[in-house]
Structure formats: structure tokens, C-alpha cells
Amino acid sequence: MSATTANAAAAVLDVRSISMNFGGLRALNEVDLQVRQGEIVALIGPNGAGKTTFFNCITGIYVPTEGTVHVTPRDGRTVTVNGLKASQVTALGMSRTFQNIRLFPTMSVLENVMIGRHCRTRAGILGALLRDPKTRAEEQRIVEESYALLKSVNLHQHYKDEARNLPYGAQRRLEIARALATEPFLLCLDEPAAGMNPQETHELKELVIQIRERHELSVLLIEHDMSMVMSLSDRIYVMEYGSKIAEGTPEEVSKNPRVIKAYLGEESHA
Amino acid sequence: MQGLKKSILVSLWFMFLTFPLMVIRIDSLNGTIDWRWENMLGMGVGTFVLSFVWRFMLARKEAGRAAAAGGALSARGAWFERLRSDPKAAVPALAVLLAAFLVLPWVVSTYQTNIMISALLYVMLGLGLNIVVGLSGQLVLGYVAFYAVGAYSYAILNSNFGLGFWSVLPIGGAMAALFGILLGFPVLRLRGDYLAIVTLGFGEIIRLVLENWSSFSQGPSGIANIDRPGLFGMQLSVSDATTYIYYLILAAVIVTILAVTRLKNSRIGRAWQALREDEIACQAMGIDITTTKLTAFALGACWAGFAGVIFAAKTTFINPASFTFLESAMVLAMVVLGGMGSVIGVSVGALVLILLPEYLRAFSEYRMLIFGATMVLMMVFRPQGLVSPGRTKYNVTDAEGAGADAARPAAGGNA
Amino acid sequence: MDWQYFWELFFGGLTRGSIYALIALGYTMVYGIIELINFAHGEVYMLGAFTALIVAGALGIYGFPAVAILIIAAAVAVIYCAAYGVTLEKIAYKPLRDAPRLSPLISAIGMSIFLQNYVILAQTSDFMPFPNLVPQPEFLEPIAHIMGASEVLIIVTSAVSMAALTLFIKYTRMGKAMRATAQNRKMAMLLGIDADKVISLTFVIGSSLAAVGGVLIASHVGQVNFAIGFIAGIKAFTAAVLGGIGSIPGAMLGGLVLGWCESFATGYISSDYEDALAFALLVLILIFRPSGILGKAKTQKV
Q1: ipTM of the complex
Q2: Which B-chain residues 379-398 have CB contacts (< 8 A) with chain C?
Q3: B46 shares a domain with B115
Q4: Do B224 and B348 belong together in one domain?
Q5: Which listed residue, of A82, A104, A257, B302, carries a Cα 20 to 30 Å from A245's Cα?
Q6: Measured between beta carbons, which residues in chain A are less than 8 angstroms from residue C302?
């Protein structure tokens, strides 16, 4: 307990024993999790272990039945997140991608990223109607910033295309760029490598490391690709049947007998 | 051969299906039956031909989908795209169009100016509904309620307090916007199709209240002798007043087009579109969907309110019968025909659907039939409408990106 | 308290409610299977009433006895409505099965407008008198002061139709296939259920029940026009939502509850806002308990 308290001082995300019930079903059972400044933390576990439910709980899409979620944005104050709306959580600086990509399919690639700038800009109806110099300047700034982000994920050539016409891997990268546009201190990636080939997965890994450096943020990711998780993460949490069964460095986790039995067992020896 | 057999079956089926209604007519006075066999023949031949067209269109739609994925741009779309995107072509075209609209009341009769006035009113309504349905993706079936709010605001304030057109215009818009928000609050959580039905119910409730609350709205008999809009206190003859109202509504439409275009390309407009595309992702991007939905409702309603005030001033008489569900459905048909989200499309859609039955007399009887069929056919064959929404141009300062631009295939057909 | 008046209203409500329930079943079944508000369902009911009117008129001219006319007219109406229902589905909904949710709804609204105007053009926009075909048998004399023979007929027929439907859904192969498809269409298809066939059957059953409702109400009220489907459709939809859309017993219950609400409200309070009551109820349920009385709440998947 004393160890976690010490860590909590530097934690940007501090989840204390959250549970989530759907009717009679307990999808999450007293899960703890911390992410410290600059860390890449992975959340792994078999399908149906409750990882995405966990994401939904901490990003405000669900309200956890029990427990608390605290975040410490860049300004240093600590805020309780549970009970806030998803949009408020994002405005605080926690941004996410989705397991089954949720882009704005018929909007252009650039516009998808521009949407991410929404919560960092102000122009209202009056500004839109009058199109005063201030609004126009802000609009141009949104365009430039979004384009720069597209460039950083190497999608800038496609900025005019409709998002739905991008190839699969590019859509995943666009989702990341869109999440970055909200200026997060913590980026939550839900299975970013799903459906990617080894080459793409490798590039994605490089991208995540790059992003962490360039944007000085922390990353929490759910991932099934073990080679990626093991080489990328600073720490790993393992879940099974809605509960956390292990946590530690990749090395510790991969030696944990419970983890091997529950999850890595079939895969690492296969 | 396969197709022929199918079409024969289809034709036989429809001859059977429409038999009682189309063929038999009971003359209960004389106790005789009027057998209208010619209708059955017409139905058989008609559906036989139509079934070929139907299959052809379905096949073409499939092919079109494949082509769009491959990045082909249809030739028909190309000239229109150029007209829209190239200022050298667009500016003269717009100028000619504007000039035509400006001289119109001087070359046609008062009667025809009146028709044009109602067509332009519908353009305004269509563009307003387009904010809610086309941009923010909230299907509202009771749009006419806001139109009624605007119209009754003017009628009641004018007949009871003598307020003039110009002072009520903003009040009417504001009242409608207020109703939009009042409706918006409780329905925020509702999913698309439930929202549609609740707004329909809301629209009908407003109409029923207007019909039954006689001390307030004078019930089904309506409110008459509403003042026409004043022009610096001058007394205008009926034809001059019509011309005046024509210019008024024309100006209102131009303002509407400008406003809706600007809104669409703004930060708020993008949030609406994101809401339409994916509500959950929209929230996850930090957009508050409550305010976003409410602004869409309020602004959409506001425009209906403006249109309502103008309508009351134009007809000088209103009653609840002008604000039935059918009216809402008509405006929706215009938005659907023109292309949800497209300003040009909706304007054209409204003009076509009002003017066509008006000038092709043979059609006028079939007007509502065509409205209904249009909605079905558009959804089946061309859900994006006649005109797909135009892409906003963004100036990015990046030599490399601009260079790569030309090499990239044009995506999405007529993006 | 005036008990006779109360019972009059009670049975009046039961009569109305039975009709609402019959139509509501069509909404709820279609919604259960393809998650579509079949906006044109009210028009199918109207077409049923109109078809019966025409058949009854023609048979009347040829001098058939009243009871025979009623039975034949009802049978023809049922067959035609089933046919209309299936055709409707093939034209307006089937091509849109993978389209965004709102597309089939808009298409359905279009169909509704189309069918109303089809009737106006093919027949008339006026109210048409519907002959009184229900005999007043002697054994009903004791209750004649609170309910007439046509009301008894409505209640009995509705009860029988609903019982038959319940048995069908519960015990037949097709009924089981329908339930399976409603639960999970993809899974049902993997297990070899022909989803298209199930959907068609759903439209056949829903439309037939609407036709029964149409004939019954036409002979009860004594007049028919093209617009009766819209308002009845909305009310039946309200009933379906009230009971919990997708739930068959819910639709029956919802119909009765709505019927009684209307009957008592107009009887004891005021008849000015009769139609507004249903709309208000609809709005309130959708806002406060969209899952209805018997429906289950659904969590949106992310």
C-alpha cells in the first residue's frame, strides 16, 4: 500500500478499485491501475476480460458503479473523473481511440483531426455567422495545427480524402492523430494494432514511442499483440474475468504463473 | 430472358395487388359498379416497364458503389463540380441566377410571383431543416411546429398588440428557437428513430393546441387580417405588396444561404457533422453533445420561425390546417431530394418540388404521390440526394502536401 | 359514482384498445426483427379498411347477406393487406437493410404518404360510409346498454387473433425462427434460418392483424377515408412503445392501457384533446421510460 501511495504522487491517472455492474453482471471487479508521467502502460487479458469496459469507465462513457478515478492534468491539480461526461474527460486531457475504429467516415481526413481541436478553440455561432478576423484566424490556426498533426502520422497527402476511403492501417493512425489534436496528457489506445500486419505493427510501435517524446504524454494501451506489448510497455496490468490478476514490468508479468496460466500460457508456448 | 420473366411476374403481381382499389369503384347512389379495367392494363404495362428500370437502377447503384471505391469521377458530376469549385465559372453563373431572380416579378404575373414566394419560403424552411437533419443528423419530423410558432407569434402579436412585421420578425425567430430548445432538452438522450417520432408527436400537439385553445389562437377558424409588412409606412397595392414581399423573401433566402454555408464551415458546423457521423466518437473528441444538439435545434427552429412570420405576413390569414404533419414531411422530402447537408441541393430540391407540380398541371394531382415516391426512391437509389454536399476547401501551407495532391486519386465519386 | 357510465367507458376503452393492440402488434414485430419503425403500417390498416369497404359494397350490390359479406370482406382484406405488407417491405425496406438507420425510416414516411395518395387517386378523398354488417343477436341484449354487438365482436376477434399469434410464435417452427431472428439475426442466419423469409412472414402477420383491425373498426365506426391510417398508426405505435417495443405481450397490454387512458380521459375530463393525449403519452414514455412497461433497457455498445 505504501508503495502505491508513493507512486500516486507522480501518477497522471490513478484508478482506485473501480467496479462496473451491468444488471447482474459484474464486468469489472475492484480494479486498481496507475499511470505515471511519461509511462507507457499496457492492459492485457483474454477477450472479455473487461479491458474495453475499463476504458469506457475511465473515459466517461460509462459511470463506474464503485471506485474512483483521479487524473492529474498538466496544470498539476488532481481531478476526480468519474461522473464527468466523456467530453469533459477529454477536455481535461485524456483522449482515446476505439477498438473498432470510430472515425467520422464521410468527413475529410483533415476535418477529422480538426474536430479534435474543438475543445481547445472557442469560436461560437456569432463568430461563424459574422466571420470576424478573430474567428478566421482561429479557423486557419485549426487547419494548420491539424495538418501538422497529419504530417506527424504521415497522412498529410490524404488530407482531402474521405476518412472511410483510407486503408485500414491509415484509419488507425488517423484516429491517433485525431486523439492527439485534443492535446492529451494521457493517450488511451484501444487495440491500436488490431488487424495490422507485422510491418504496420512495427511502424505503429515506433509511432507511439515518437508521440510520447514529442507530445510529452503518457500512454495507456490495450493490446493483444504480445511482441508489441512486451517491447513497448514500461509496465503491464493483466486482467481476467473483470479482475486484475497481475501487474509489473514486462519481465515480471511474463514470469507470473497466474498470468502464464490464464493468458500467456497458450500463446507464448504455441 | 430471366429479366423478362421477372418483369412479367412483377406486373401480374401488381395487377392483382391494385385490383380492388384501382379497378372497382362503387357507385352507391345507383347501386352499380364501375369496372375500370383500363387502370389494370395501365398498371400492368407500367409496372412491367418500371421493373426493368428498377433492376437497372439497382445494378447501376451497385456499379456506382464499386466505381466510387475505385476513385472514378462521373462525367456528369464533373461539369457541376467545376461550376461549384472554379470561381471563374461560379461567379458569372451566380450573377446570372441572381439577375434572373431580381427581374422575375417584373416579367411575370402577380399570381406567378406568389407561387415563387411560396417556393422561396420552402427553400428557407428546407435550409433550416437541413441544419437539424442534414448537418447534425437529428431526424426531426415535427419541423412545421416551429413554423407555426413563428406564424402565430406574428399573427397574435399583430392582431392583439398591433406590433409590426419588422419588430416581430426577431421575436418570431426567438420564440421558435425557444421552442426548439424546450423540445430539445427532453429528447437529448433519444436515439434517432425515437427522436423522429417524439418530434412528430410534438408537432401534432402544437397543432392540436392551436386548434383547441380558441381563446388564444381562435381555433380552427384561424386568425385573419394580419398586416402585410410595412415599407416606411407606405400604403401598397396588392400587386406592389406582393412584389415587395417577393424581394423580402428573396433577401431572406440569400441571407439564409449565406448563414447556413458559414455555419456549415465553422467550428460549430463541424461539431454538428461529427455528431451526425458518430455520437460516441464525437463525445470522445471533447464535444459536448448537449449544447451541440441544442444549438442545432435552436438554429433550425429559429429559421422556421422567421419563415413562419413571413408566411403569416404574406397570406394575411393563418389557421392550424397549414401546419400539419404533411407539411413537415414535404420539407423533409425537399431536404432528402436535394441532398442532406448540401445547401445548393436543398435549395434546388425545394424549388423543384414546389414549382414542378405547379407548372406541369398534369402533375399537380399527383403532387403528394410524387413526394412520397421521391422519398422512397431517393433513399433506395441515391441516399446522398441530387447534389452531394460540397467539400470545404482548406488552405494548408505545405509545398510537399500540395505537390502530392495531384497524384492522389479523387475519392468518393463526387466528393 | 355513475357505474353505468364507468362501464360504458371501460368497454369503450377495451374496444379501442383491442384495435390499437392489433395494429401495435405489427409495429412491435417488425421492430423486433429489423429494428425499423414501419411508419407505413398505419396505411396498411387503412388499405385493409378500404379493401373491405369495396368488397362489401360490391357484394352488397349482388345481394349477399350481411354476415357473408362481413366474412368475405374481412378475408379479402386480410389477403390484400398481407400482400401489400410484403410488397412494401420488398420495395421500401429490403434495399435499405444495410443503410444508415434513418434511411429506412425516411423511406417508410415516403411510403406512407404515397399510399395515402394512392387511395385518394384510385378512389376518393371523401369519407365513405361503411355498411353496418354486424347483426345484433338476442343473447347480447342484456349488455346492449353498455356495449353493442360490434364492440363484442371487436373484443372477441382481437382476443382470438392475439391468442392464435401467441401460440404460433411459441410453438411452431416458423415462430421459433422468428424469435431467434429477433434475438440475433446474424446468428439465426448462420444456423440456417432464412432471414428474408422470416422478415416477409413478419410483414404478412403484422399486416393481416392490421387488416382485421381495419375491417373491425370500419364496421364499428361506419366510415372510412384515406387519412384514418395516420392517426391510428401513431396511436398504435404509442401502444407498442408503451408496452415495450419488440415485446408481443407488451403491445397487447400497451394497446389496452392506451385505450382505457383515452376512453376515461375523454369521458371524465374533456374530449378536446383526445388525440393530443396519445401524443403526449408517447412523448412522455419515450423520454422517461423508452423501454416501456415490459421492455428491457438496452445499453449502447461501444
Answers
A1: 0.89
A2: 379-380, 383
A3: no
A4: yes
A5: A82
A6: 52, 56, 61, 98
